[in-house]
Amino acid sequence: MKNSLITASFIIGLLIVSSLLQAFLNFFFDKEAIYLFFFPVIFVVAWKKGAKPGIATSAAASLIVFYFFFPRLDSLSAAHAHTIVEVYIFLLQGIALSVFINKAKQYDVVGYYKLREEAFSKKYSELEKRFQEAQEDIRARDEFLSIASHELKTPLTSMLLQLQTALHNIQNVSLANFSVEHLLKMLESVQRQTSRLSKMINDLLNVSLMTTRKLELEPEEFDLSALTKEVVESFSEKIIREGYEIAIHADTPVVGEWDKVRIEQALTNLLSNAIKYGDAKPIVITVKEISNYAVVTVADHGIGIPGKEKDKIFELFQRGGASEKYKGLGVGLYITDQIIEAHKGKIHVKSREHHGTSFTIELPMK
């Protein structure tokens, strides 16, 4: 590129110097530069055919000008010397013009192809990015299908075993030895597994709605504090079974217009996560109103989230660093985030590994 610029500068300089020299000679010797008529011809030939045909045309034009437009040289004089120099300058101008036009055309073609190259490069980058995104989506889908098949199979297998055992006992054990208490425990286990299975199926249906942008809200006026207490009450059996203590700070009514079913779903997901990852340590839930926003905070003191995982926990099919120990579909927080976003609200997370996690929801009152 540098050499090309030097060549172009040299050609332009040669044209300027030769033109000035020609003007100087014509002025002092009072002769017309008849050969200037040939410059358009040289220009056209050089542009259409290239530098070499242009140089050949310049040489031919120099001979024509010298032979037809200047007198025969019987003896050498200053005027004759001027004629020779003038024709020689014309030849140099023709050569310089031919080379310059050829270079200019090359630059034009090169520039065109460079623009095309840039356009294709940009298009390729976009396609490569889309391909990588598609690959990532396929990987996430395959991982999701693997997790879903495992997670859905687990409660079904457990339910089937419990029912088979209960049926076997009813059919083969005498009534005297039949344990109603044992049967009740089996049925309770089946009920828990059924509830778990139902939640998974509902989560999958919700993901389908949200990814197709078909989630529709049905706002109604209700007290968020009361709803939060109802959600906690629905977990009472699990809270007692797993040894949790939950403190609820929701004494003041916080009334707004939201989709009650969806907000209950979001709160359920957050509380379920707090119980799942809370390491049997106290959970604190706070509901209050701040500047026309309803603010709900669910804080646990459990295993926390590694710093590198916090940015992706709201993504679809993503799970935290403890995913090997704590099984799940990785859709709960994604669903929660989509519900809050649909309400024009925000959700924030604060967490330190081994020091607990705090999720805060901010909902506009209307």
Task: Describe this entry's structure for a reader.
With about 375 residues, this protein is an alpha+beta fold. Helices cover about 65% and strands about 10% of the residues. The chain has nine helices and seven strands, in the order αααααβααββαββαββ. The strands form two sheets. The protein has a five-stranded mixed sheet with strand order 2-4-5-7-6, covered by helices on one side. A two-stranded antiparallel ribbon has the order 1-3. β6 (about 345-350) and β7 form a beta hairpin.
Features:
about 375 residues, two-stranded antiparallel ribbon, alpha+beta, 9 helices, 7 strands, five-stranded mixed beta sheet, about 65% helix
Question: Topology, pairings included?
Answer:
Elements: H1 2-29, H2 39-49, H3 51-68, H4 78-172, H5 180-211, E1 219-223, H6 224-234, H7 236-241, E2 246-249, E3 255-259, H8 260-277, E4 283-290, E5 293-299, H9 332-342, E6 346-351, E7 357-364
Parallel strand pairs: 2-4
Antiparallel strand pairs: 1-3, 4-5, 5-7, 6-7
What is the CA-atom radius of gyration, in angstroms? 43 Å
How many strands, which pairing sense, and closed or not: the largest β-sheet? 5 strands, mixed
Unreliable segments (pLDDT under 50, ≥5 consecutive)?
Answer: 28-32
- Number of beta-strand segments: 7
SSE order, one letter for each helix or strand: HHHHHEHHEEHEEHEE
Outline type = elongated
**Strands in their spatial order, largest beta sheet:** 2-4-5-7-6
Please tell me the overall pLDDT.
76
The N- and C-terminal alpha carbons lie at a distance of 64 Å
Percent helix range: 55-70%
Query: How many helices?
Result: 9
User: From the helix content, strand content and strand pairing, which structural class follows?
Assistant: alpha+beta
Q: Could you tell me the strand content as a percent range?
A: 5-15%
